[in-house]
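Weekly sync, protein design subgroup
Attendees: M.S., D.O., the rotation student, P.L. (late)

Item 1: inverse folding check
M.S. brought a backbone from last month's batch and wanted to see whether the design step gives back something sensible before we order anything. D.O. pointed out we never logged the input encoding, so this time it goes straight into the notes. Structure tokens as presented (320 positions):
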């Protein structure tokens, strides 16, 4: 993990994913949330399909896998991509990045509800409570300048949606014999198809072709959705899933800094404090006892758009 190449890949990945909230903000100058969602999934799917076939991998062929991918694509791409764009119509990009950081907390809560996480009195559970306290601090419903709005709730729902996808992928798609890059390509192809279904609701509005908005969508789709996933898999293959997820802790920091520097978004002490508390809670949930004799729920680090295949399976593959 200490090699220069690895550190560079981690930095690039953190910048690609952490800046996605900024690019969404720019894309909203011309396009609706539905149009942004379809555009980024189509671009990302194109990149991953090309990478998949260039590495001599093939998309899944069995219908059962595609059925699982439809569920994962809806909750891991189509729905949260739309909700982030919807929420950022009224919420700062930096705040969106911070709220995205709650995904691991929801993943752990889901693990408790489906009884994958059985130890209710542990540091991980305390971390979940601490993380949710940080989320409450960010929303500050008792404060006149709090974030309790439909946009903020939409972004929080996107983070929950990511958590549902992470859990489902771990249960139904991880380690089933299909390469991670093929699964990720297939998932984004499916997400693009699902996104077209929302066009009659939010997609047929006239598009005002602002150059910056077009550039933002291209960067978001090609780099932030396509190449970023591929880079994430390379990092996992080289360093393992645990090391790779450390990138996630940089995402809210990147989003807040870019929002402040590029867009002039205010950096309030309350939001920064909430971010620190959330990251502290997430760090606590990452703790696992070394003496565990059975598989533990894999709680992702602060989520980027979830790697749409198998982090666990990828750790078992050498870098191509």
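Designed sequence read out in the meeting:
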């Amino acid at each position: 993990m200490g090699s220069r190449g690895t550190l560079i890949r981690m930095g690039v990945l953190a910048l690609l994913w952490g800046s996605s909230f900024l690019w969404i903000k720019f894309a909203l100058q011309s396009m609706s949330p539905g149009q942004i969602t379809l555009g980024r999934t189509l671009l990302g799917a194109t990149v991953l399909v090309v990478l998949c076939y260039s590495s001599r991998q093939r998309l899944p062929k069995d219908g059962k896998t595609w059925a699982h991918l439809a569920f994962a694509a809806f909750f891991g791409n189509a729905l949260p991509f739309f909700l982030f764009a919807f929420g950022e119509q009224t919420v700062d990009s930096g705040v969106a990045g911070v709220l995205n950081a709650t995904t691991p907390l929801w993943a752990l809560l889901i693990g408790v509800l489906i009884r994958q996480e059985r130890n209710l009195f542990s540091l991980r559970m305390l971390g979940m409570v601490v993380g949710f306290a940080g989320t409450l601090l960010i929303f500050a419903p008792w404060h006149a300048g709090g974030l309790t709005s439909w946009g903020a709730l939409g972004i929080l729902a996107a983070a929950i949606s990511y958590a549902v996808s992470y859990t489902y992928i771990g249960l139904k798609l991880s380690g089933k014999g299909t390469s991670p890059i093929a699964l990720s390509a297939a998932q984004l192809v499916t997400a693009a198809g699902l996104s077209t279904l929302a066009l009659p609701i939010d997609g047929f509005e006239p598009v005002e072709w602002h150059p910056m908005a077009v550039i933002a969508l291209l960067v978001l789709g090609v780099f932030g959705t396509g190449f970023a996933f591929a880079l994430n898999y390379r990092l996992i293959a080289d360093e393992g899933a645990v090391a790779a997820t450390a990138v996630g802790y940089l995402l809210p920091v990147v989003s807040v800094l870019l929002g402040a520097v590029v867009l002039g978004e205010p950096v309030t002490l309350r939001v920064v404090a909430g971010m620190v508390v959330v990251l502290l809670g997430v760090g606590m949930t990452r703790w696992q006892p070394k003496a565990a004799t059975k598989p533990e729920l894999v709680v992702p680090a602060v989520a980027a758009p979830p790697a749409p295949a198998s982090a666990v399976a990828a750790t078992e593959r050498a870098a191509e």
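Discussion: The CA atoms of residues 139 and 147 lie 5 Å apart. Residues 211-239 form the longest helix (29 residues).
Action: P.L. to compare against the previous round before Friday.
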